[in-house]
């Protein structure tokens, strides 16, 4: 069965987030040969639209409005609903990001449809589109289908591979200008607390610290390693509770669940709650003084030693590698 | 002020997940208030202490959820509502749960609804926002600070590590993020008092709902456990040699660098 799929792209600091391309790829699978329509909402998004086509969208709809310069639930839901009413898609896909998590349940309630959130893979099995997603923070997985005809999913960043970029692809870019009004919440200010660009949920490499990092300053050593690898810094609950870092960095059953290509655990013992948040990473490295630490049971590679000796050495090695490349 | 808190009973985070007959094995497992909902309960009680309020905790589930409701009452909530769907519903999803809660709340006078931003079991994060939409009130998700000044509410929202300062007005629904507060432990007198606090039990009939009205839009067809990770290689030798070996392994064997 072919489906018309509407895929919402997402931007940050003027460029598209990778999850946009992954969502297009997910949309292609769901479409089963049907049309994949990209969508961008923002103040100025036209320059980004072509890129969605290069990654597999057949055409793109944009809504440009100064009230979409910053995300608010009301403004974005009004714009999105206008596009949905016009396009009447069979399926909707967006990223399971802060934006997608906030926006998707409202749209699902408005449309009176189901919503499968945080999808990590999609298969067509016996006429059904089957969605796999983690439950219990990744301690288990479930496969779900829709009992209704309408499909609506959010996909977890970094799990569904995007399609190769093809700059020869072309498609229409059309614009819609719905009225956006009566916004009930106002964003007064955005305080940047994260370092440049790399978000934990999208990072390919995560360097995470636990109680063994011992202080806020200790985390700078991890940040240097993350910087060389173009990754992000995360933390265990122990480190957050001890005040070494912000709760927004916490990885685990409470906190974020992450699936990077490379997870480097430094001074983390490996409590079950932490493992739930990271053990689906592709490759895990553990650095810990205690050879009995639980984290070694899930690590692909382990170094028993003081992280304050190991991590700087590691940073130096990767720097050399970078120079060679 | 009338405050409602949406609460879910979940597996303790300490629990290992095992399957029996293709279902999650609940036998012998410890259950708790979903940790994010616990922040919501705590925040409601703090607002009550500062401004005065009547706090009602609401859950949808089975008989066993009474325990978690009593815990919330012991923390300081005033009354609890258990919407018992055990008899009526086999398969529920977020569509189901949100519709039931919204049906219960729609005739109530509401100033503020608090919920967790996500439950650590199902992990969808849908129910709070869905309920707000069904009641046609605005919502702000993943909040880490909330100040009420008359009808105005100033909030700080966690957005992937950055912070948004948001202004809204009551009535409002918010979902709690970690860092919002430090939930209290119920005191002994609190626990004693909780036993006498009102706990209303309702069924779908009482809400004038039929099974079909809340029929799930999605269906689980399988549960499986991730393949267990095998312990890998512990490197040996001088530290700088180990580090060199690790980089080479990551590059040539694991191919992640």
From TrEMBL, chain A:
Give the Pfam families listed for this entry.
Answer: ETF (PF01012), ETF_alpha (PF00766)
Could you tell me what the cofactor note in this record states? Binds 1 FAD per dimer.
Q: Which GO terms describe its molecular function?
A: electron transfer activity; flavin adenine dinucleotide binding
Q: Does the keyword Cell membrane apply?
A: no
Identify the cofactor(s).
FAD
Could you state one GO biological process linked to this protein? Answer: fatty acid beta-oxidation using acyl-CoA dehydrogenase
Its keywords, alphabetically, are:
Electron transport, FAD, Flavoprotein, Transport
Query: What SMART domains has UniProt attached to this entry?
Result: ETF
- Specify the domain of life of the species encoding this protein: Bacteria
Which stretches make up the Electron transfer flavoprotein alpha/beta-subunit N-terminal domain? Answer: 5-189
Against SUPFAM superfamilies, the record matches this protein to: Adenine nucleotide alpha hydrolases-like, DHS-like NAD/FAD-binding domain
UniProt-annotated binding residues for FAD: 211, 236-237, 250-254, 267-274, 288
Q: Which PANTHER family match?
A: ELECTRON TRANSFER FLAVOPROTEIN ALPHA (PTHR43153), ELECTRON TRANSFER FLAVOPROTEIN SUBUNIT ALPHA, MITOCHONDRIAL (PTHR43153:SF1)
Similarity comment: family membership: Belongs to the ETF alpha-subunit/FixB family.
Quote the protein name from its UniProt record: Electron transfer flavoprotein subunit alpha/FixB family protein
List the source organism: Fervidibacillus halotolerans
Taxonomically, what lineage is the organism? Bacteria, Bacillati, Bacillota, Bacilli, Bacillales
TrEMBL record, chain B:
> Sorted alphabetically, which CDD domains does this protein's record hold?
ETF_beta (cd01714)
Record has Flavoprotein as a keyword: no
Annotated Electron transfer flavoprotein alpha/beta-subunit N-terminal domain ranges read: 21-211
GO annotations of cellular component type? cytosol
- GO-annotated biological processes: carboxylic acid catabolic process
One term of GO molecular function: electron transfer activity
Keywords noted in UniProt: Electron transport, Transport
Q: What Pfam families does the annotation carry?
A: ETF
Record has Electron transport as a keyword? yes
Instruction: Enumerate the SMART domains for this protein.
Output: ETF (SM00893)
Family annotation (InterPro entries): ETF_a/b_N, ETF_b, ETF_beta_N, Rossmann-like_a/b/a_fold
Q: Which cofactor does it need?
A: AMP
What top-level branch of life does the organism fall under?
A: Bacteria
- What do we know about how this protein assembles, alone or with others? Heterodimer of an alpha and a beta subunit.
The family assignment reads: Belongs to the ETF beta-subunit/FixA family.
Q: What does this protein do?
A: The electron transfer flavoprotein serves as a specific electron acceptor for other dehydrogenases. It transfers the electrons to the main respiratory chain via ETF-ubiquinone oxidoreductase (ETF dehydrogenase).
Protein name listed in UniProt: Electron transfer flavoprotein subunit beta
Supply the source organism for this entry: Fervidibacillus halotolerans
């Amino acid at each position: 069965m072919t489906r018309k799929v509407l895929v919402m792209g997402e931007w940050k600091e003027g460029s598209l987030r990778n999850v946009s391309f992954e969502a297009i790829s997910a949309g292609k699978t769901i479409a089963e040969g049907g049309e994949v329509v990209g969508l961008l909402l923002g103040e100025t998004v036209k320059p980004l639209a072509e890129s969605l086509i290069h990654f597999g969208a057949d055409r793109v709809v944009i809504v440009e409005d100064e009230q979409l310069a910053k995300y608010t639930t009301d403004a974005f839901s009004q714009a999105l609903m206008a596009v949905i009413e016009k396009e009447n898609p069979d399926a909707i896909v967006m990223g399971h990001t802060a934006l997608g998590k906030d926006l998707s349940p409202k749209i699902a309630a408005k449309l009176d449809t189901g919503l499968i959130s945080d999808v990590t893979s999609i298969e067509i099995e016996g006429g059904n589109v089957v969605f796999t997603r983690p439950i219990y923070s990744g301690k288990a997985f479930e496969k779900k289908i829709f009992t209704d005809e309408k499909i609506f999913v959010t996909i977890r960043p970094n799990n569904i591979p995007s399609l190769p970029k093809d700059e020869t692809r072309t498609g229409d870019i059309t614009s819609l200008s719905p009225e956006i009004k009566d916004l009930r919440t106002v964003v007064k200010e955005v305080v940047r607390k994260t370092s440049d660009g790399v978000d934990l949920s999208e990072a390919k490499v995560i360097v995470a610290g636990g109680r063994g990092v011992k202080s806020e300053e200790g985390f700078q050593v991890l940040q240097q390693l993350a910087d060389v690898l173009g990754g992000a810094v995360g933390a265990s609950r122990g480190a957050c509770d001890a005040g070494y870092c912000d709760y927004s960095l916490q990885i685990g059953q409470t906190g974020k669940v992450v699936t990077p290509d490379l997870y480097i655990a430094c001074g983390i013992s490996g409590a079950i709650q932490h493992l739930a948040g990271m053990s689906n990473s592709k490759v895990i490295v553990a650095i810990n003084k205690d050879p009995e630490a639980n984290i070694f049971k899930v690590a692909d590679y382990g170094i028993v030693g003081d992280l304050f000796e190991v991590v700087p050495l590691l940073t130096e090695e990767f720097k050399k590698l970078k120079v060679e490349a | 002020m009338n405050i409602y808190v949406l609460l879910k009973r979940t597996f303790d985070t300490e629990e290992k997940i095992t399957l029996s007959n293709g279902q999650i094995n609940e036998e012998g497992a410890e259950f708790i208030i979903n940790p994010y909902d616990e922040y919501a309960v705590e925040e409601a009680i703090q607002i009550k202490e500062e401004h005065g309020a009547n706090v009602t905790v609401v859950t949808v589930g089975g008989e066993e959820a009474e325990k978690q409701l009593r815990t919330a009452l012991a923390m300081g909530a005033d009354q609890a509502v258990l919407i018992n769907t055990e008899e009526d519903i086999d398969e529920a999803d977020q569509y189901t749960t949100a519709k039931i809660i919204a049906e219960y709340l729609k005739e109530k006078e509401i100033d503020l609804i608090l919920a967790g931003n996500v439950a650590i079991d199902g992990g969808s994060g849908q129910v709070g926002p869905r309920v707000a939409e069904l009641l046609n009130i605005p919502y702000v998700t993943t909040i880490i600070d909330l100040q009420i000044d008359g009808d105005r509410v100033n909030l700080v929202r966690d957005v992937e590590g950055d912070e948004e300062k948001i202004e809204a007005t009551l009535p409002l629904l918010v979902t709690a993020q970690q860092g919002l507060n430090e939930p209290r432990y119920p005191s002994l007198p609190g626990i004693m008092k909780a036993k006498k606090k009102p706990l209303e039990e309702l069924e779908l009939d009482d809400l004038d709902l039929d099974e079909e009205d809340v029929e799930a839009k999605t269906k689980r067809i399988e549960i499986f456990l991730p393949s267990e990770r095998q312990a890998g290689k512990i490197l040996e030798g001088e530290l700088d040699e180990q580090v060199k070996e690790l980089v080479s392994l990551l590059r040539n064997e694991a191919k992640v660098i």
